[in-house]
Amino acid sequence: MPRLRIGDLEPRLPIIQGGMSVGISLSGLASAVANEGGIGVIGAASIGMLEPDFDKNFRAANKRALRKEIRKARELTDGIIGVNIMVALSDFEDMVRIAVEERVDLIFLGAGLLLKCPRTLLSGKTRNLATKIIPIVSSARAARIIFNSWAKRHGDVPDAVVVEGPLAGGHLGFKKEQLTDPNFSLEKILPEVIETIGKFEKRFDKQIPVIAAGGIFTGADMLKFFRLGASGVQMATRFVATHECDASIEFKKAYIKCRKEDIIIIDSPVGLPGRAIKNEFLEAVSAGKKMPFKCSWKCLKTCDYRKAPYCIDLALTNAKKGNLKEGFAFAGTSAYRVDKIISVKELISTLLREYEEALNA
Questions:
Q1: pTM for this predicted structure
Q2: Between 20 and 30 A from 145 (CA), which of 139, 236, 339, 349?
Q3: How confident is the model over 276-328, as pLDDT tens digits?
Q4: How far apart, in whole angstroms, are the C-alpha atoms of residue 222 and residue 15?
């Protein structure tokens, strides 16, 4: 396998566990992946859901919970830990500050183009910390816009970039018609992003690894994208059905029970298409039913809660807790291929075996 180097960080395996927010990947899953030599990632969005004051003061609850989860992860592993923070969060800057104050190794930035380097949010001693900043993009154009903006404004560029294709789970950075268009496949956009980033590597005399994500499920998939030039891979769906995943058992069983035809594209209230597992809740929404709710948070900048048919944060929180009658599970294209719950250690061993088999085929 290639050696993934992000600045002075070098995991034993070039495998990143995708950050799954609203309580799916917390300290339990992230630390387990880090202990096996990969990079474990905590999802920051609505991380305070289990705090007693979340409904009344979600910002304080989120900050407190993120700090707790990072510290728990550090107690459980001396491996590499990152945090996934959505740019669209209304408390985005709070989450970045907490992550850096707690000295996480990396911050992954998705769900939006961040044109200002997050390092400018920090002041005093925190500004000199070694936390790596990694945007998640869905095209070479997006990568170019971010890198040019940081370079022009700050004389700085990100430390790595994740390019996520249209087969990923959750919110997607593509239009609906692009999801099945070969011109937008990960196989097509990955080399384009690598070429774009290569120019910034030369300009800044800095190694900037490109990490492939979205629909990567097996060791053979890993090999394919390494051969296309990726320095690492990010995987999320396959880590859900592990004992260490922080989701409820009911959430994990939704993956095990689903069929290929159950993986559907939905219109999220935040204005993006999303990939999820079909259930009664989503069928009711599709039929036009509105799920009454009171917005206590305005957690996402892009959500117009006055027009939304349901609160996606509440729906995902319910699902994380196991109440799938009032929520649903986001999932990647290959979720139907998950057939049992195993340990992270067994999953990593399986991926390595699949990789070796593909390499020798």
A1: 0.90
A2: 236
A3: 999 999 998 888 777 656 656 565 666 566 677 778 888 888 999 999 999 99
A4: 9
